[in-house]
Every structure is written in structure tokens, then in C-alpha cells.
Amino acid sequence: MTDTKKSKLLMLLMTTLTVLTISYNVLQKYVMPDIEGYWQRKLYYERVISKKGLTLQKGMYWKEKK
Amino acid sequence: MKKLRTYILVTLVISLFAGYGLQALMPTKRIDERAFLSEVAPDAVFSEKRGNPPHYQSGQGIVAFNTYDVTPSFRGYAGPIKLLLALTKDGKIAGIRLLEHEETKNYVHAMETPEYLRQFLGKSVNDPFVVDRDIDGISRATVSVQALARTVKESSRTVASNVLGIKVREDGARKGGGAGGLIYLTLFSTSFILYFATRRSRELLRIRDISLVLGFFIAGLYLSTPFSILHIFNLLLLRPSSSLLWYAIVISTVVSLAVAGRFYCGWLCPFGALSEFIGRLPFKKWHLPVELDDRWRRLKYWILGFVIVIVFVSRKAEFGNYETYITLFSYHGHFLAWSLVIVSLLASLRIERFWCRYLCPVAALTGIFSRKDSGYVSRYDCPMGNKPMPEISECIRCNRCYQGDRQQTEEWYD
User: Fold this and answer.
1) Substitution target from A15, A20, A21 for chain B, most B beta carbons within 10 A
2) CA of B342: which chain A residue's CA is closest?
3) Mean pLDDT, residues B334-342
4) Which pLDDT band holds residue A8 (cuts at 50, 70, 90)?
5) Chain A residues touching B306 at Cβ < 8 A
6) How high is the ipTM of this complex?
7) pLDDT by residue (tens digit) across B25-73?
């Protein structure tokens, strides 16, 4: 492999890492908590609410009432 | 270069206006303090916020307040550190919660933990609150921890005196970061003198290595605060620091930029020093075509522009934190940030100062404002691998090739 080709691969890796690092900074603030919250609600629905034959919204409503 | 300078400046101005515009148009998301009252005093039922200074009061005599309402002028490294504090009626801290801050996460992650904040519980408002005496210090976050301790001390004493009627000690405000600032200024002045000395005499060129080693140990390992793009972002977002070190770093870099271009990169940057020393190891360097190298060097400006848009539109400086030296010298970062550090350093074995050449945002920022000097003509052992007669934005002023006013290049190229 030539030096140019190796350099191109290295540059591609570094640019990707840089863009991913910047994206991660933004995503961890906004998107990741949303995804985490979604999975928490989904798991709660599957473990508890769906067994009572309720939809997620109804279940959350009755949970809050209780 | 003119086009890149225009691109960066136009992007900066548009993003700043867009950020301020969005802030004015959209309602600011305020922290709901009441939601956290149960965390600082679980069994208490609080009144509405009232009084001067503003506070919440419970039937048991517990008083809770946002420290920013009491001491808004106290700042950490990048703005105020806002806390929710609860005081008992005899002036002891019953609860503490960190609400908001703008400090760089890499440095203050330990300060945010409940384990660290727990040391304040039970302390009296008349305790000294001195870091490394009755408050644990955190290495590489000294300024932030001092600001936190000072905020807790002064705000709780004000509330204890004005709301609870407790007689409090008045031992004056202590300002942190003074010693660090003086150490950095001494380092900067020494290196600056050496820089001018090496311009006059080639025999002295080796002393640049001493400056790089000092930069690595003092600015990198000891002070842990290399000049960063976040300094400039916080300045433009009007979040000045209360730390002398912060001002010492920003002002000295701006002064050196006006007088000697990218002097900071070539003489003081701890990551640049490390990359350069790694690059001197006996590994064969990869040969790159000049056109390709030129094209890639522009990448750092495009990335800086991209980051400027993200930071100023969102008004969150920490979104722009992708700098390898912050991760390395704060000893903290996520997997991607550490990967960037490791690959950058390894890449320096094959391509001189890889990070500085192609990706560093400080290199891009200082590059576009570099002062022209036709005495820098480059030569075969240029630490940046510059071609003959390079763009001044790529020159880190190592002075190896410095020709003064002469334009002769006969002995300088391979």
C-alpha cells in the first residue's frame, strides 16, 4: 500500500472520529435522554401495563392517579 | 486564506446573531427549582419563593434557596455555578444540589457527583470552606472547586444572616486561580523571550525544546489548562471567568498572535509538544503529495466553521469540545474522544504533528489571524512538514528557517 493510500485511510478515520465526537457531544444532551426515556417507558409498558390490558397512555394515567 | 478567513468570520457573525435571535424568540428553558426541593430537604413542605434574598421556607424552619439569586456575580472558570441549598434553622447545610453550570465537563465531572457534594452536608455557615482544608480539592478542576466552595460559603452566610438572623463570620472573599495565572504568565514570558532570542541566533534554536517541555509539564500536566477554542467560545457567549489563569491564557495568546502568529502552537501547546516529540522518534515518515496535503490542511477550517454554527446557535460551548488536549490533560473523556487522542498521537509517528496540521481548531483560529512575516521560508526539517514558502497560517514559528529580512533560501532545502 502506498503512503498516499495509507494517509487517505488515516485521514478518513480521523475525520470520522472528529465528526462522531462532535455529534456525540450534541446527542448525549438531547437525543440520548429521549431514547433512554423511551426504552424505560416501553419496558414499563411491557412488564406492567400491557398485562392489565391497558394502552400505555391509559396505564400511565392510572399510575399517576394511584 | 482570505476566503477561509471570510468563511470563518461570516459563519461566526451569522451564528452569533442566529443564537441571540433564537434566544430572544424562544422562551428560555428555566430550571424548575421546586422539583428539586424534595431532594435537598425530603421531608419538608416549602412555601412559595419570597423575601430578600429570595428563598423557600418550611414549617420546620428549613430555608432553601438558589445560590444564583444570592451571589450572581460569583463565577467559576466559565460562568456561574448555580446550586440549590437548604439550611437548617441553626445555620447548617441540610441539602445541596447542583442545578446548572457552564464549566468544561471533562474537568468537573467529579465535582458533579453526589459523593463529592455530600461533604458539604452538616457544615455550619461559619466554617471556613477553604479548598484542601475543609473542602476536598479536585486536581485539574481547582478554579471550579474554589468557585463552588466560595458560592456555597458566601450565599449561605448571606441567607443565614438575613433570613435566619444568625451572626456570621466575615472573613472576606478569597479569589482562586491567582497562583496558576502567575505561573502561566511566567512560562509565557520566558518562552516569548526565548522566541525572540532564537530569531537572532541559530545557535540557540535548541532552547525551543526546553519551552516545549515546560509547556507540556506546566500548561499540560500541572495547570491542565492548555489554550482551547472553548476559551474563545465562552468569551463570545459573554461568559467570562473569575479566574486569573483564564485571563492570563486568553490575553497572552491574543497578544502573541498579534505579534508572532502561531507562537503558542510552536512554543507552548502541550499537545503540540507531545506530537512533535513523538514525531521525532525514528519512524519513516509518509510522503504526501503537496496538493493533497494543502487540501487536507483546509479541513480544520471547515470543521471549525461547522463547530461555530453548532455552538453559537445552541449557545452551548461544550458542544464544541472535540479538542484532544482537553481530553488528554483533564484525563477524562468518552470513548470517541480518547480514540481521537490515541490515533492523533500514533499518526504523528508517520505524519509530523498530524492533529495540528489537519484538525486542530486552535490551529485554525490562530492560523486565520496570523500576522504575515516573509522571513519564514520553511526548510527540510520543518516540524509542520511545510512546503517551501508556506502559507503563514501553517507556520508555528519554530524559527528554524527564519531568514530575517533576507529572502535567500540556498542552504535551506534538501
Assistant:
1) A21
2) A14
3) 91
4) very high
5) 22
6) 0.75
7) 776 666 777 778 888 888 888 888 888 888 888 888 888 988 888 887 7
- For residue B333, what is the nearest residue in chain A, using CA coordinates? A21
User: Which one has a higher pLDDT value, B239 or B304?
Assistant: B304
Q: Which residues of A touch B (CB under 8 A)?
A: 3-4, 6-7, 10-11, 13-15, 17-22, 24-26, 28-29
A25 with B318: Cβ contact below 8 A:
yes
Q: Is pLDDT above 90 for B358?
A: yes
The structural domains of chain B, with segments of one domain joined by +, span: 31-162, 178-413
| Chain A contact set for B314 (CB, 8 A) | 26
Domain boundaries, chain A: 3-49
Question: In terms of pLDDT, which residue wins out, B264 or B239?
Answer: B264
Q: pLDDT tens digit string along B211-220? A: 999 999 998 8
Cβ contacts of residue B109 below 8 Å, gap of 6+? B332
Residue of B292, B307, B336 lying closest to A24 (CB–CB): B336
